[in-house]
């Protein structure tokens, strides 16, 4: 399994190194989505490797890419949080989520993920 082979750290490292690549940001967020889907036990690994700020950075860099926005909202809704756990980081996340809602009003799946996160 990808997680046992260190896949979470590898994927987050790719995202961190290749911020200028929309494709890497998209594909990496998709991989993380599939790792976490139905397996919340891996949330702590993503959090421990700095996933919150890396994923938030992808949202900020690619606001027009609905899939990145949706994947990020899902990942955050699963409990990925900043380290240290500070309120200002959550404010940044909420700002990105509201921007995603505004930028993609016709994307039902993104809207559902984003609204679910704001509940």
UniProtKB/TrEMBL annotation:
Residues annotated as transmembrane: none
Superkingdom in the source lineage: Eukaryota
Protein zer-1 homolog-like C-terminal domain span: 15-116
Alphabetized InterPro entries for the sequence: ARM-like, ARM-type_fold, ZER1-like_C
Protein name stated in the entry: Protein zer-1 homolog-like C-terminal domain-containing protein
Organism ancestry: Eukaryota, Sar, Stramenopiles, Ochrophyta, Bacillariophyta
